[in-house]
Amino acid sequence: MKKTILFFMFMIVVTSVNAQSYVGYTSDNYAGIQGVLYNPASIVDSRFKTDINLFSISASAGNDLYGVKFSDIFKKDYDFDRQSKFTPTSNNNAVVNVDFLGPSFMFNIAPKHSIAIFTRARTITNVVNANGNLIDEVKEGLDSSNDFAYSVGNLNTVSNSWGEVGISYAAVILNKNQNFLKGGLTIKYLQGGVNGYANSKDLSATFVKNNANPQLSVLASNGLVTIGGSQDFENNSDIEFDANSSGLGFDLGFQYEWRPDYENYDLNNAKPVDNNFKPLNKYKLRFGISVTDIGSINYSNAKQDTYDVTGVVTQETVDNIGDVYEFFNDNYTKVATKRGIKTSLPTALHANVDWNIHRKFYLNLNSDFSLVNKNAVNKNSIANAVTLTPRFETRWFTYAIPVSYMEYTGTQVGSSLRFGPLFIGSSSVLTNLVSSNSKGADIYVGIKYPVCQKKFKDTDEDGVLDKFDACPKVAGPVENNGCPWPDTDGDSVVDKDDKCATVAGPTENNGCPWGDADKDTLLDNVDGCPTVAGPIENKGCPWPDTDGDSVLDKDDKCPKEKGLVDNGGCPLYDADKDGIVDKEDACPTISGPASNKGCPEVTKEVLKELKVQASAVFFVTGKAILQTSDKGETDGRLDAIKEIIKNYPNAKFSIEGHTDSVGNPIANQKLSEARAKVVMNALVAKGINPDNLTFKGFGDTKPVASNKTAKGRAQNRRTEVIHVGTINEGKL
């Protein structure tokens, strides 16, 4: 037997591939239009101003039934059946995917809005719950098989090809401090291509071989088989595309970015050269979630037939199968027919986390989960997968190493490279190089025309971008197109601000030299009164006379009170109200007669009181030391003398000391002088002006009583305070 239906199923399995496209590339911040296929939100706040896909294709091959060593399969003598590793189960599975992205582009229509338009052709084939043990029995044909009995069960196969024209819109939803959220939606017009499927329900197969007469070998089966396609293949095996077979599809996605350093990207602080920080990655963590391929295609000319395959056919009948529909119609009972079929897209959920480890190094975790019931009739689905991808990423270069766990094919390691407009990669290439049991192989390649966001050039750092700067290598103001203003006179004041552009002058005078408007020899810049002449000492201003008394304030001792010129600008005062102005009053604070120049006169009564007080000032016997044993008597007398003398500020008083005749006259003379001096010093210590005092000793030369009696001698030992004249008269 050359071929059987089951062997045909086997061939689908061994050529199966993963449904994911561009594994390890779509998480790149420079994936551009390819990124929109997995999450439409990715195109806003993009590193591209625009990204134009010229051509890209993604395809892969693998299965969970056979494993091979890829380095061997290209050898001339390679024997697939003998050298491959066969791992059959009762439910081997597979999925086929070829994804071609035609002319497509994305671009930013505003800082927070982007769109993309793409064209795409896709083919997906699924095989679910294929009994690998049965395939092993019939892969060489029934001729080589022994008796077998297997439950095929609920085998499900579906293949669908279609074209897409999609438009995507994405916008920034939230941009507040460290939180950044964007969302996107894709609407796709779907043009159906070719759709075919087969499904069994509770199918079992038993083969009984007759070695004596192979023609009598029989294949018995039981269950239901449903087959269908995008057209009536029973009556027309030529593939015809139906323009009316169309549908709509949708993709929806969101991306959240955590931006802990958001203050560094505050647009209020951005310079023109920063290009609003568009070229920079601003997130530390990025979380994405999306649902893709929501929708279906309505094949208006589709036909679906269901057969009850309960019965027995001979090996000869199986060997001579020509047309599948003819085989089923001739040997089994058709129980249902249906026309006009909808084929659902392979709806899937994608979750993605991207971590910016440090600067240009990233680590991405991506998961893809099918949302389709894989056992349902005519339902395409993807293979579930989890991929961890470390990558190094710059504007023109990315290298990534995706490590994936794929449903059906297991763990595989690949490599991805982006270099300028070219990208190429595979999610399994490294595994295929070293593994002796590879169950998958894939590759994607593309070429595009990317226009990246980039920091603008400002060579002279004057805030005017080079493309607008008339002098890009010399700093200058925006108003002068980035060129420095000229300074003809070289005074550091540019001509546009220089009121004397051809004559050097200071900045403070708008580039003009200083003048002397009031001709007072002080230049206007240092002249406090540049329009009124004045002396240099008063910064070029005339001296004021506030009180108008003809005495300038600088000379006026009373600048706010009108006075006499010969009195220093002050009026004449009589503080003690004694009729003598203070300037002529020797005692301006104490009233006195004019005859004594305004000072009080020392009267006989005053002198008498001084005599009384002075007579009570006592000394230690034979010494010039004030007596302190009289409980303050002596000190009190001195205070009384002080109070009297201070009332006569211009009077001159003499402190006179006397002794009795006892003792040596020379010693008595010295003792009297010393005692007089002690009293004078005591009064000065209490605040009396020393100019008002003098002292003198007379010894025993001026007795006031007889020295022959003790009483007389006591009277002769005395101190007297005598008025001797006035200070201003110079009398002693």
Automatic annotation (TrEMBL):
Residues 1-19 form the signal peptide. Its main location: membrane. The keyword Membrane applies. Pfam families: DUF5723, OmpA, TSP_3. Keywords: Cell outer membrane, Membrane, Signal. InterPro entries: Bact_OuterMem_StrucFunc, DUF5723, OMP_bac, OmpA-like, OMPA-like_CS, OmpA-like_sf, Thrombospondin_3-like_rpt, TSP_type-3_rpt. PROSITE patterns: OMPA_1, OMPA_2. Residues 606-727 form the OmpA-like domain. It is found in: Cell outer membrane. This is DUF5723 family protein.
